[in-house]
Design brief:
single chain, 170 residues, nine-stranded antiparallel β-sheet, 59% strand
Length: 170
């Protein structure tokens, strides 16, 4: 039963996010011996009237995780949605104020902080340090790096990694 659930989860994720994957939005599916996870992340500048990038950047990350030992009351699915908006003025050279909403199983957490974004043809660097705006806030650090290398006219190699850390106040 465990393996049929793994196969079902991978097949469903592939079918559900097929159009998203073809649109070059990273869709990652992780399967392990205890759970399976789907992670979708993208960020994009809003366009101005002339069709160029505006100073406003939107960040979106959606995660869902399912434990194979899930029952009706234990090991329930975990999910997280992170939405962020930042104002990126060219004089700040990639740094920007950012507001974030994290929507998790246990609630909604508004955050604010500083972001750094540098999006070029050959690489992308995106990072932030934000703090919850609640009574005893956690501080989150996030770093995403992606490097593109063209091996020939038809093949492009993409290397990416991300680091995330949450520092708790309590």
């Amino acid at each position: 039963m465990k393996y049929s659930f793994k196969i079902f989860f991978v097949v469903m994720a592939t079918l559900l996010f097929r159009g998203v994957a073809f649109a070059q939005i990273p869709v990652e599916v992780f399967t392990g011996h205890k759970k399976a996870t789907v992670d979708i992340m993208f960020f994009k500048f809003f366009k101005n009237k002339e069709g160029h990038n505006s100073k406003f950047l939107f960040f979106n990350r959606n995660r869902a995780s399912i434990d194979y030992t899930m029952t009706q009351t234990t090991n329930l699915p975990q999910f997280g949605f992170t939405e962020a908006f930042s104002y990126n003025h060219e004089k700040l050279k990639g740094f920007a104020p950012v507001v974030v909403a994290s929507i998790l199983n246990r609630g909604v957490y508004p955050k604010a902080g500083i972001q750094f974004a540098k999006i070029k043809k050959d690489y992308t660097i995106f990072s932030w340090i934000v703090a919850e705006t609640l009574k005893e806030p956690n501080v989150d650090f996030f770093l995403f790096r992606k490097i593109y290398t063209q091996t020939n006219r038809q093949t492009k190699f993409i290397f990416s990694n991300r680091i995330g850390q949450c520092y708790s106040n309590g």
